[in-house]
Amino acid sequence: MNTLLEIDTIEKVSSYEILGRNYRDERTPEPLIRKFPLSLAEDFKDEFTDIVRDISLHGETGVSFLTCDRQEYIYIYVNRGEPPEKLVLIKGVVDEYNLEVVRGLAKIYDHQIRLFDTKERDILTRLNNRQTLSSTFEQVLDFYRNNANNELNSYIALLDIDHFKTINDKFGHLYGDEVLIHFANIMRTTFRHSDFLFRYGGEEFLVIINQTDENGALAVLERFRLAV
Questions:
Q1: Three-class secondary structure of residue 186 per DSSP
Q2: Which residues of 34-53 are buried (b: 16+ CB within 10 A; e: fewer)?
Q3: In what helix (H) or strand (E) does residue 110 lie, and over which residues does it extend?
Q4: CA distance to 58, 102, 225, per residue, from 95 (Å)
Q5: What are phi and psi of 162, to 5 degrees?
Q6: What are phi and psi of 161, to 5 degrees?
Q7: Domains of the chain: residue spans and CATH
Q8: How far is CA 189 from the centre of its chain?
């Protein structure tokens, strides 16, 4: 998307992930927003957060326009019906020629996301797969390198389903697959949207619990254990 900054009438380009709704209060539709480069905080805010929130609640997928406080924006919104949704917010205006450039880049962006889903998500559980762990871990390390004064930490936990082989042997692999899917869904509803969830392999799963202390990490793991 850096290509967009070569257009003179574009002032700023910002990319976001919209991770889902606030798990602490299911009655509210408040989305959780993360910006690139990686922000690990659940309460992330910047100058465009309110606009991004409104788009996530009311915006249309594809390339669209909006005006806020007399400032014009273009946005590229990709929503495939599962988190994370993707949003590129462009501050500025473009002529018809450059609008076609934006639309062309939007198609490329959409194809890249499709490729990511195919390559880097576990096909059964839809969690991140093991191949994405190294790159995600590097992003987390970069966050702490760039935020040296940050007082919180990230923690890694490996989760394993006990006696899973017995389930497969007794009930069959289709039943075992349902257990894996159910386990992954419990992870999604228990851990925070700012945490990173992986299927590590077989019946093993891994979670990176971000921006907390040891007591906070233990508390969320205990909440998960009780949910299982």
A1: helix
A2: bbeeebbbbeeeeebeebbb
A3: helix 96-120
A4: 25, 10, 55
A5: -65, 140
A6: -90, 115
A7: 2-118 (3.30.450), 130-227 (3.30.70.270)
A8: 14
Q: What is the CA radius of gyration of the chain?
A: 20
Q: What order do you get walking across the sheet with 204-212 strand by strand?
A: 153-160, 204-212, 196-201
Q: What is the mean pLDDT of the chain?
A: 88
Residue 104's nearest CA partner among 93, 112, 116, 115 is 112
**Do 219 and 185 meet the contact criterion of CB atoms below 8 Å apart?**
no
Tell me if residue 6 is catalytic: no
Q: What is the pTM of this model?
A: 0.77
Share of the chain above pLDDT 90, in %: 57
> Position of tokens 């070569």?
6
Residue 129 banded pLDDT, cuts 50, 70, 90: very high
Active-site residue, from 72, 203, 214, 222: 203
